[in-house]
Amino acid sequence: MLRTTESLGRVRVAFTDRHGGVTTGPQGSLDLGRTDADPASARENFDRVRRRLGLRRVVAMHQVHGPDVHLVTPDDAAAWPEQGHLGDSVPGQARLPVVDALVAPDLSAVGPVALCVRVADCLPVLLADPVTGAVGAVHAGRVGLLAGVLPAAAAALRALGAGALTAWIGPHVCAACYEVPATMQVEAVAALPALAAETSWGTPSLDLGAAAAAQLTAEGVAVRRVGGCTRTDPDLHSHRRDGARSGRLAGLVWVT
Ligand SMILES: [Zn+2]
């Protein structure tokens, strides 16, 4: 169920793997995506993760590969439905914020509330300042990195008073696996040089993790890279490997 868990002061982070859920088929078994074929399975999968981690609420987002950041206030978190992470796939539930980054001040007074990012090859990036209790969850693929979603999230956390920020870059498709057309590589590397890489079979690729680390380091953020490569690890969900029906893993960050 859990690929990686780490603590830093009051901050807890977790990245899930693909095991321990109830979804059948290529998305199985622990699919935490909004697009799980069966809403009941999606609900049960998330409930299992919440129980395991002791989380009451999980604030998620409708990710669109953009640079926008949504602020989750303590009032928002207190009003967030206990199944709100499922979004409007469940009748009567609130719509998810349409963004690729969530940030929040210290939510510990509202109970254990996590911010959540969902991925299958893109980067799940969790951010936190254990002193102020400010946290962030970011979805960063090639498009989001180039759009600047990570510096935007770091700036939003600084605006909340965060000082020494740490980022956890979770499981994603590695540079040795992430082949792209040569023209795409040239354009991307011109904008973000740290993206330059080559696959294990000698063709142009992009190093999303290195580029994210470079962007975060430039923002004064300490970076931890955890979790491995989604495409080559059968214990993780991968869109590149499993296609349009691949499941999603989640990155979760909260303050105790
Ligand atoms: Zn790989």
From TrEMBL:
It catalyses: adenosine + H2O + H(+) = inosine + NH4(+); adenosine + phosphate = alpha-D-ribose 1-phosphate + adenine; S-methyl-5'-thioadenosine + phosphate = 5-(methylsulfanyl)-alpha-D-ribose 1-phosphate + adenine; inosine + phosphate = alpha-D-ribose 1-phosphate + hypoxanthine. Residues 17-42 are annotated as: Disordered. Keywords: Copper, Hydrolase, Metal-binding, Transferase, Zinc. One of its GO terms (molecular function) is copper ion binding. Transmembrane segments: none annotated. CDD domains: YfiH (cd16833). Purine nucleoside enzyme that catalyzes the phosphorolysis of adenosine and inosine nucleosides, yielding D-ribose 1-phosphate and the respective free bases, adenine and hypoxanthine. Also catalyzes the phosphorolysis of S-methyl-5'-thioadenosine into adenine and S-methyl-5-thio-alpha-D-ribose 1-phosphate. Also has adenosine deaminase activity. Belongs to the purine nucleoside phosphorylase YfiH/LACC1 family. This is Purine nucleoside phosphorylase. It comes from Auraticoccus monumenti. The lineage of its organism: Bacteria, Bacillati, Actinomycetota, Actinomycetes, Propionibacteriales.
